[in-house]
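User: two proteins, same treatment. go.

Assistant:
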Amino acid sequence: MNQIQSHILKIGLMLAVFAIVATGLVSLTEINTRDQIIKNERQALLAALNELVDTSRYDNDILEDKLSLPALAELHTKSPTYIYLARKENTPIAAVFTSIAPNGYNGKIKLLVGIYFDGSLAGVRVIQHKETPGLGDKIDLKKTDWILGFNGLSLQSPNDSRWQVKKDGGDFDQFTGATITPRAVVSAVKNALVYFDQHRDELFEETE
């Protein structure tokens, strides 16, 4: 082997070692990053759940005490979703799950709905939407407190005919220049209450 070939071989070996080390570092970084992403996602989810059901109201691990729901026509979900169950000393307290308003002005609106075991609303949050800035986006708590108006309501309060925006003869405010968005959200929240009312006992029984 002449000097040139020896030099080429050394360079090749150095490049191979560099590639192996680099690949290892990338893999290690990816693993660590993935774990951190999962941890961050869990923390964000827990914070969202606790916005609706305060930690003082339950003592179970709400992230683990959950059921996987199939796609449900009643909630307009197109894929499986989780329902998170809150308990206090094993007594049912509340459930938190997703409901979709499919007919927002600019597409579907994804909601997180918390409902106490007695059927009253713990709260509602919009977690995904494409509504018009300055108009339909007022459903977002970051923009206005309109969404807080659902707190404490139920299928009995207001009664069935009043679960509409005021323009349609109901109790809920619409936005100036944007009736479609709040109308869609009101309907989706009512659908969530109806679903929970019909399945409340079986949802909690399945995990006991």
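Protein 2:
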Amino acid sequence: MIARRKTRKIMIGPFGVGGNAPISVQSMTNTNTADYEATIAQINELSEVGCELVRVAVPDMAAARAITAIRDAITIPLIGDIHFDWRLAIAAIEHGVQAIRINPGNIGGSRKLARVVECARQHQVPIRVGVNSGSIEKDLLRTYGYPTADNPRALVTSALRNVEMIEKLGWDQIKISIKSADVLTTVNSYRALAERTDYPLHLGVTEAGGLLAGTVKSSVALGILLHEGIGDTIRISLTRPPTEEVRVAYELLRALKIRMRGPELISCPTCGRTKIDLFCLADQVEKLVQTMRSPLKVAVMGCVVNGPGEAKEADIGVAGGNGVGIIFKKGRIYKKVAEEHLVDAFIEELTEMDRQWMAAHTKEVADDPSLTGSG
């Protein structure tokens, strides 16, 4: 059983982060924020697959002004990501973001930071202090050197110094992230930070890469930290559509038995007995289960010989054959279906099982944060 580090709880709109709130899944849009219609559409796609906090880039005033329309059209908390320009941070807050991400060390100096913090305090907007290996102050680099796995002091010191700047300005609704593109530097930096503060921590590996490399690097770093009880929100950074980030995040949380949102999908690796396009079938089913909440165990198997036996614990499964496939439940054949209708028939059965489970557990879903993601 994982014992989570005890942290303060902050509120991002109505959404709790830290404290007793579930570890939450965050992503970031890749649309032009000023194009609010495209941004709203992407956020709604993210919400559909379980994203609980979403960050948007605010590179200019047009993006800041679009915040109001975006926030009014979505159902999850909206975070503004600001670099360098203090005026954009204030504009984003005044237009309705529910949190901001800044690096206080590069926002424009102490006076400008004070104005940002005062605006955040007035609007009750938490601040994520975000420091990356590539954005550390020069004096800290001269003192401690570039952060490495053996020496993460510059990264940790930068974050804590910036937090102290905000605290001295009278605001303590803070979340911290310290990211590196290196896995072990990320792990050891967060370990050191967790020993020195009780603010909630946002975990991530920056510039992790594409689907394969990014998933491996993020899963190793975040998996280690989460298993040690460190982390309150996570983002899997991938050079992919952001819905893929959410998909990987939930699989990571499921593997550690931290969050069990939606069905668990198991599938065989294929072999010479496979007579159907199992890759396509598994992909279709995987996309469907991302939108579900029930804790069903779903199996996608390549052949009818081993399908029900190898996946006999599955609540529902499908196995391909030569011209005909089967749908099975708890290891027993439920029905045989012609191959051309197999996918549709299976999705229909799975959707109905999910609907029945949700109807029978309405109160459980409403009360259990691990299912609803609320907190």
